[in-house]
Each structure stands twice: as structure tokens, then as C-alpha cells.
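Fold these two proteins, one after the other.
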Amino acid sequence: GTAAVQNMTRFSLELGGKNPIVMLDDVDVAQALDGVAASAFFNQGQVCAAASRIYVHRSKFAQLANGLADVAQSMKLGAGLDPSAQINPLVSAHHRDKVVQHIERARRDGLTFLAGGTPADDLPGYFVKPAVIADPRPDSAIVRDEVFGPVIVVLPFDDAADAVRLANASPYGLAASIWSNDLKRVMNLVPQIEAGTVWVNCHIPLDPSMPFGGYKQSGIGREFGQYAIEGFTETKSVCIAH
């Protein structure tokens, strides 16, 4: 970074994320459950855009939190080459230990675990059972910090303004998603969410033509599409008198 600044070299940084899902009160939880779980536990949460904070309307909170816990507890742990495995090992012993440290701090803070959050020591590899934490304090470390592992927090909100405030209460702004059957309500919220990408009724799909990058501490510049090319293009103006 210093060398780039000293030489006025353009650069693009795609950094961390603590990505929220906002689920409005009209969402069909049973229908959305698998998609939400996949967005959080895909690649064991070792994806910069993975969902890690789930904000759901209070009327659907218990159904979603308990449903995610059931999904997490049912997921099969196994090697990456095992086609039936749904949770694979973390990338290294060092990273597993970092994830476990986040989890242990959450336990010391007295947070409520509905599922998982322990190493699977009986398996050959760096496994952590997928964790679901219910209604932690919004200022808890597990809510603020990027874990980069199979850990999600589920918190209730009371109205749209509350949801936006909670979703934006992060130094990161990489990605987010809004889940609802009411597109008008969704499109009212999209501009208010401080994230470089906002998905609707899905999370994580990327398209090579769609710019990807973050707000705030999630980076500078964009990957993919025209904006990625322009980020490394010098514009020259030519004026000819004739």
C-alpha cells in the first residue's frame, strides 16, 4: 500500500466483510431457510461475502433461529472430496484455532448457542461444527468481528429503520442481502444499506459483468465488469484543431 501511494500506482483492495442478511416480516422462513444457511456456511464461511449477521423481523425470529440451528446440526462434516459432505475442514490448524477463539470468547460473554461451535476432534482435519448464536448483544465481539468461519448470529429487529441501523452498524460494507416478497419495500431499503453489493432473496451469486467490491473498511475499487477495467485504465483526452 505504501509503495503504491508513493508511486501514485492505482490499486484495488477487496478486504473483509461482516455481511448482513435482512429478512422482512413477510418472508416465508421455511422457503428461505436453506438459502440462508447456504449463504452462511458455504465453504465453511471462508468467503469474504458469506453472510454472518442475520437480522430478522421479531415475528419470525424464533422460527428462523431454531430452523437454522436444525440445519446446522444436520449438516454432515467430511472431506472436501466426499460428495455427501456439507461442511469441510477449515484451511489450516492456525485458522481453526482463530475461529475457535472467537467462539470461546462468545461463550465467555454468556451468549446463547443454539447449535455447534465446537471442534470436531474425532475427524481427521481442521473441523469446526457450524454454530448458530441467538440474539447476542449488538455490540458483542462476535457480531462486530469478521470470524471467517462457520459461525452466524441471528438477531431480531422491530421495523425497517431498526433493520437498516443494525445492518449498517459495522466498519465493513462488502455485501448484504434483503429477503422479502415485497419488491417495493426492498427497493426502498437497498439505497439505505451501506454495502457494495446488495442481493435480493439470494446471497453470494456473482456475475463476471457485475462489479464487486466494498464500502468503508471492505476495500477500494471493484472487481469484474467495466468498473474493474476502468479502475486500471488511464484516460487520455485529445483535442485537434482543424
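Now the second one:
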Amino acid sequence: MLKRYLRELYGEKYTYVCEEMFEGIMDAIFGIISNNDYDKITDGMPIYAGFTVYKLNRYDDMYEILAPDFSDNDPTTAFKTDLTESFLVEYRQAALVSGLGITGKPFYSTENVLIEEGALEADEVIMTRVPTVDGSRWQIVKVGGSDDALSYLPDFYEIPACRLVKNYSWAADVLALPDNYSVRFRKGEIKKIYSDSKKKLYG
């Protein structure tokens, strides 16, 4: 059942909407908010919690916690009151890493994913989390390519990870895997998962 809740923190009121079964997740989000000094909690403040970057919206005498609207063409700027969809993404990501018996590493919804042209429409792709100077990023490439490997220079583009949720949830579900992990998909279904040491963990 979808419900609106009200909590208090530092004497301020906070309201949010989610399915009743997920309400316990808010304990972690309020833990993140409470790590900020009182005077640093302001209107529009982002809350980085797992995959999702939530936002505080001040109105009347309280804050409302908003989640990205993954159905919008630009979820980095479009927000909604119902947090349930974000919680479902978090749940699927957590279930995957837990099932593998590993510790996940958050990849925020606002971070960019590097994608080979045509990869999201291809039958088979490989996703790899590649370390960078300032952290890591995911890249998605097609399996195979040109018969002439020397002449095959693929084009890439970037999109924020939150845009994968709308039409390519299979890609969003693996984003909490650690650096140097890779996943092979066929038609949106996970076929193999490899660890950072190239050990096959699944498939």
C-alpha cells in the first residue's frame, strides 16, 4: 500500500511517499541526512543513497524527499514524490551482490555510463566497471563487431545511469558490482558474471 509518512530530525519535519513494505529503507536515508550539520541541510540538497540521488524539497514548514522520475527523458532534473521505484532498483542491485556473496560498490544514478553505438539494441553485450583516475565508470560494448578487427573503431556516447532504468533495467540492475567486474548479457538476460580476477561467478 502506498502511504505518506512524516518523521522529525533536528526539530525539522520530513515527509515522503513509498510502498509500506519499503518504509524501513528510510532509516538508512535519514542516517545519511543526519550526518550533515543542521545548517547544511537546505532546500534542493542532494542525498546520495546507494544508486539513487534523492533531493530535498522545502515547502511550508517541512522538507519533502523526492526521487528521480525514471520515466522522464531526463531523470537528472525530473523528480517525483513516490520513492518506490528507486527502492526497487536498490533492492534488485542489493539482491544481485548478496547472491554472489560480495560487497557492492555504489554507482550513482547521475554518473555517466559509456556506451558503444548500437550496444543497447544488440543481442549480446558486455558491461565492465573500469577504474578511472577519480573513481570508476561502467562501459557497455557489443559482443563481436566488424570481421575486420583492425578497421573496427566503435563510436561511443555517454548517458547518466538513471536513463538506463526506463528502457534497459537489465543494465541498471548490475551497477552496484565492484570495479573490474564484468557481465555478459544476451537479450537482456545475464549469462555470465566475472570477478575482478576474471573468475566466473555465475553462468
